[in-house]
């Protein structure tokens, strides 16, 4: 009812039912029918894809680990031991060759001290 | 919600499988390590003679001295640089403060220089002692000279520690100039002996190897062709040995005949030039010995 058409003047405005006119039932929208079969298929693909991805990732890590360790071992040992099967004579010749390499005259080992032998504050007095 | 749970569960399962595989992998690699070490220990135990250790021929003492020598040279370079800066600064400004700085830096540079010189002689002494091919009398004489020089340098080091003024440092510089020549003589003499001795040691080892090979091949029943090849090889090796030996004797004679004050940089450089063909000859002899083993 319109306010202007009201005849009863004793009523207070706050006693009026609020939004009484708008209390209309709205029509319920029908839920969209989701194609469940398609959705579940997509999710399955995602799960399988993720699983394969992680599996590959783990496998790659394992392969890298397996490959690394033997190389490190050989590197460490390489400097210390030449695992070569040699007879006693070959071994002795090899040792002599190592000694000869050390004795190479062009070897710059034991160089004379590179120091200033004339280090002094004042010039030496001429006598 | 259900789908999310499934996804979450799938990821957990994949991780569990993955960690399981990696653990197996780690165990395998550990097994590999264990196997390698086990193989090595068994190898070193059973076939010790067949292993060649690629070790440095220097003893630990020599290696330590080399490291010390290198470090001391580095320290000396820094103090020498400081000394030169302080000296230039003093002669530009001629103030008392700059003179104090110069005296301080002179003390440090002189002290660091002596440390280098002493360590170098100790290094030469240790190397000479370790070199087997040097004639014993020459070795002893050279070691004695080195020890005497070290003592003189250490006394000079004490004087530097006590010195405080410009005049004293000038006097110490004069004193030091008297050491320089003898220091050079002692050092180059020892160096020459080390160089000759190192090749002499290889020559001595090679002649013993040659004799042992000859002995080991004596009883072998080989054809006439191989036998004649062997004889020719032995003759060639012997010829090379003779040339090497003659060269080494000449060099040793030069050292013996020289007066103590005749060993300088020039003598050492001449020695190196004379050693070059002997070194090449020695290398050839080792090649021939290797070839001889295959006959």
What's the helix and strand layout?
The complex is a heterodimer of chains A (127) and B (295).
Chain A: H1 36-78, E1 81-82, H2 88-102
Chain B: H1 2-46, E1 52-53, H2 60-93, H3 96-130, H4 136-162, H5 166-218, H6 224-257, H7 265-294
Helix pairs in contact in B: 2-3, 3-4, 3-5, 4-5, 5-6, 5-7, 6-7
Q: Can you describe what's shown?
A:
- The complex is a heterodimer of chains A (127) and B (295).
- Chain A has 127 residues and is mainly α.
- Chain A has 2 helices and 1 strand.
- The longest helix of chain A has 43 residues, at 36-78.
- The termini of chain A are far apart.
- In chain A, 6% of the residues are buried.
- Chain B has one domain.
- In chain B, 87% of the residues lie in helices and 1% in strands.
- Chain B has 7 helices and 1 strand.
- Chain B has helices at 2-46, 60-93, 96-130, 136-162, 166-218, 224-257, 265-294; one strand spanning 52-53.
- In chain B, helix 3 runs parallel beside helix 5 (166-218).
- The longest helix of chain B has 53 residues, at 166-218.
- Chain B is flat.
- Strand 1 (81-82) of chain A pairs antiparallel with strand 1 of chain B.
Distinctive features:
heterodimer, A: 127 residues, mainly alpha, 2 helices, B: 295 residues
């Amino acid at each position: 009812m319109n306010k202007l058409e009201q005849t009863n003047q004793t009523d207070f405005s706050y006693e009026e039912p609020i939004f009484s006119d708008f209390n209309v039932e709205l029509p319920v929208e029908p839920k969209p029918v989701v194609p469940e079969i398609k959705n579940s298929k997509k999710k399955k693909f995602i799960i399988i894809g993720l699983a394969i991805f992680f599996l590959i990732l783990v496998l790659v890590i394992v392969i890298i680990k397996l490959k690394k360790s033997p190389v490190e071992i050989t590197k460490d040992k390489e400097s210390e031991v030449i695992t070569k099967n040699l007879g006693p004579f070959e071994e002795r010749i090899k040792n002599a060759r190592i000694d000869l390499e050390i004795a190479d005259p062009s070897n710059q080992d034991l160089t004379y001290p590179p120091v200033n032998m004339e280090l002094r504050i004042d010039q030496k007095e001429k006598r | 919600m259900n789908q999310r749970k499934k996804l979450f569960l799938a990821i957990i399962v994949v991780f569990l499988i993955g960690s399981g595989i990696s653990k197996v992998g780690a165990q395998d690699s550990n097994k590999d390590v264990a196997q390698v070490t086990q193989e090595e220990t068994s190898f070193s135990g059973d076939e010790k003679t067949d292993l060649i250790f690629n070790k440095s021929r220097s003893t630990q003492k020599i290696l330590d001295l080399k490291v010390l020598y290198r470090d001391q040279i580095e320290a000396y370079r820094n103090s020498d640089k400081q000394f030169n800066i302080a000296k230039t600064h003093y002669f530009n400004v001629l103030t008392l403060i700059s003179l104090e700085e110069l005296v301080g830096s002179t003390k440090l540079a002189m002290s660091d220089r002596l440390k280098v010189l002493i360590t170098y002689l100790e290094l030469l002494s240790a190397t000479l002692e370790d070199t087997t091919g040097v004639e014993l009398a020459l070795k002893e004489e050279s070691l004695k000279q080195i020890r005497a020089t070290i003592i003189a340098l250490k006394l000079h080091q004490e004087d530097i520690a006590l010195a405080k003024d410009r005049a004293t440092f000038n006097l110490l510089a004069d004193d030091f100039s008297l050491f320089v020549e003898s220091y050079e003589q002692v050092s180059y003499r020892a160096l020459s002996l080390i160089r000759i001795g190192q090749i002499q040691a290889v020559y001595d080892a090679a002649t013993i190897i040659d004799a042992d090979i000859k002995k080991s091949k004596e009883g072998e029943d080989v054809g006439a062709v191989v036998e004649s090849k062997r004889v020719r090889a032995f003759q060639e090796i012997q010829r090379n040995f003779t040339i090497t030996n003659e060269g080494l004797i000449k060099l040793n004679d030069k050292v013996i005949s020289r007066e103590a004050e005749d060993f300088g940089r020039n003598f050492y450089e001449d020695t190196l030039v004379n050693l070059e063909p002997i070194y090449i000859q020695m290398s050839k002899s080792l090649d021939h010995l290797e070839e001889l083993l295959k006959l």
